[in-house]
Amino acid sequence: MYHNKLWLLGGWKTKPTELLRDVWNSADGVKWDLVQSELPFYYTDLPMTIVFKDRMWVLGGTTLSDPEHPATNSVWNSDDGIHWNNVQAAASWSPRTATPIVTLNGKLWILGGLEWVDGKQTLKNDVWNSSDGINWTKVTEHAAWQPRAYHAAVAYHGKLWVLGGGSYHPDYIALNDVWNSEDGLHWKKVSDAPWSGRIWFSAAEYRDRMWVMGGWSKSTLNVGGIWFTDNGIDWTRLPLSDSWRPRHEQSTYVVGDKMIIAAGHADPITNEVWELKVPPLWLKFDRLVHQVLPFVNGRTDGRAD
């Protein structure tokens, strides 16, 4: 969410090498406007994206069209989605993808991910932070949690939280553990959550709860559950209507009193947008309502990310 609008950047379609480089925004999730048809960078699969210091930021990511340099550690930002600044061609953290990023205490925090250098893939559990997106400090080379990618992170109640994730290739791993830290250095395992181990899922803070949504696992493929908690230990599964399809790699936004989920891979890749509104007193859950939107020039093409 940036300047009171939802923003959707890049992603991939049916082929891993067919990456999208467009930028869209919407004030309501229904009507979408094309802001930029071609981003100046190519690493638009599984980058880190975040709003920080009144700018949109894109860090790291993958492009499978360049086998010599499949991942990057470049840093870009923009204040309008049209003009992008390459503020760092190569940050001090290694090129990586499938990495979560959050803001806490006025800093950006990068938590692990998949390092991809010279054709070699390495799962990471390092932690980095920055107060400006340019100068980075390594907080620890090895956090207490297992090296991983495709996980989620949330800044919640003054702490960093790391949830689930694992690895897709070459060795499949799907975790459901929950960790937190006040400083990024000292970590505490909070629980093994009741939701199944998963990768490619999303998490957010909404209505003073942490939420985990969707994902993918080798045993079930797409995962349909949505779970919430106020402490990382006790989790409740949200009942969903039959029209909700399991999905992974969706985009998740918190907009005032609503949580919005857009796009993702729901077999096939979709351009649906769903809205969840939870009353402040938790008396009931409103129904999820969806609309199919024209993300790509009015066609029915969807996207992941």
Describe what this molecule looks like in 3D.
- By secondary structure, this protein is mainly β.
- The chain has one domain: Kelch-type beta propeller (Neuraminidase).
- Helix content is 0%, strand content 45%.
- It is built from no helices and 26 strands.
- Strands 8, 9, 10, 11 and 12 form a five-stranded antiparallel beta sheet that branches. The chain has a four-stranded antiparallel beta sheet with strand order 4-5-6-7, with no helix packed on it. Strands 13-14-15-16 form a four-stranded antiparallel beta sheet, with no helix packed on it.
- The protein is globular, with a radius of gyration of 18 Å.
CATH architecture: 6 Propeller
Give the helix proportion (percent range): under 10%
Strand elements, count: 26
Sheet/helix structural class: mainly beta
What is the residue-mean pLDDT, rounded to a whole number?
Answer: 90
So what's the overall shape? globular
Number of domain units: 1
CATH superfamily: Kelch-type beta propeller
Count of runs of 4 or more consecutive helical residues:
0
**Computed CA radius of gyration, to the nearest angstrom:** 18 Å
CATH fold label: Neuraminidase
Q: Quick one: CATH class?
A: Mainly Beta
Could you give a short account of the major beta sheet? 5 strands, antiparallel
How many angstroms separate the termini? 15 Å
Low-confidence sequence ranges: 283-301
- The fraction of residues in strands falls at over 45%
